[in-house]
Specification:
This protein has helices at residues 2-11, 46-50, 55-71, 82-102; strands at 31-38, 110-121, 124-136. By secondary structure, the protein is of the alpha+beta class. A three-stranded antiparallel β-sheet has the order 1-2-3. 15% of the residues are buried.
Amino acid sequence: MALIAALSLTIRENYPFSHFPMYGNPNSRPVDYYFLTDGSGEPLPVAALTGETAPRIKKRMITQELKYVKDHHLKDRAAIPPENLTEIRTRVLSGFVTQARSRGSSLPPEIQLWKGLIHQHNQGYSESFEQEAAVNTAAPSPP
């Protein structure tokens, strides 16, 4: 037992021994996350509205972006034109609206999709936000 304890203290949280390899190689690129708000910018409880957790927003967007890359024979997701990214994000957001409606959730008149970025710098951390898409929930969802 003492050998295992000493080995654990020596190895610490280093890959490949850590169950958290995402922390094994930090970099200075901003970390992104996505969330939904109403038309005034108040955050919405994604799980309560749709039955999905907020991280699924990003997963669905990446899935749709990769499909677009494959269908249009692009090198990677960075090659998707901005107007097509907006279209993809609006389609993903519309899917969440449709899902919320099917659950009988009460929706605000407008739902917005935001990307939050956490930046690391010498003074610590800061956040910035970019609106990615908006959907009028009074209008029918696109297919």
